[in-house]
Amino acid sequence: MEESSDEIYSIRALDFLDKDTNIAYFNKVASIYESTSEVVTASLFAKRYACLSIASGLYAMSMYNKSMDYSLENCHMESIFHGEAWLPCVRLTNSEVSQPGAGERNEWRDRVIQNIFADNIARVWDSFSKSVKVSKSVLWENTAIYVYWLYENQFGEGASACQQAQLLEDYQYLVDEAPAHLFGETKNPLKKFNSPKKVTTASETPLRIRKTCCYYYQVADDNEYCPTCPKIKHEFVSV
């Protein structure tokens, strides 16, 4: 609800549609990620932006049947540091809440999904990919992994049986049934990257191996890969 005092890393989401603004912003946040590549910086920042843009919106939708306006025109990214940790948040200019009418939840849900993805995420990813030539597949998989993680591991905490059922229904709709236009794409990007989890020799916990690399290893200590990185030679275990 409040504007950050940090004007260096805070930005209107709408400004991400400008190529020069993107490049200038990536040059600034590169120092946070210790990155020397615009493509790497764009990918790593996209992870943060995706989580900030979808987490609260999808949680409100699935847990409480409520929504707010997450369109680019209504969003600001406010920079906040806790010690050395950079933990920005999203501020909405208009925080008015809407709810579905009786018997209209499915249509309302489509509008919520379109507002978060087509009216925000897709426009930013298209701009990022044109600004620094980062692959949109990488950006969309960066988004998809957070949707999977939030619904599979986070949203259900403390949920009632009714809320659990709605979470599952919404999740299945997002990753399997939702039409592509709600995401501003020609194919549903969440369905595209939703591969089955498998046990590998490197992990006893089943993993959903990524199809694209997010470039994290280029800024990690000792060039360490994410556990689900496709660059790792995963040997799958039969169970």
From TrEMBL:
One of its GO terms (molecular function) is catalytic activity. InterPro entries: FhuF_C (IPR024726), IucA/IucC-like_C (IPR022770). Residues 210-231 form the Ferric siderophore reductase C-terminal domain. It comes from the Bacteria. Residues 43-178 form the Aerobactin siderophore biosynthesis IucA/IucC-like C-terminal domain. This is Ferric siderophore reductase C-terminal domain-containing protein. It comes from Paenibacillus agilis.
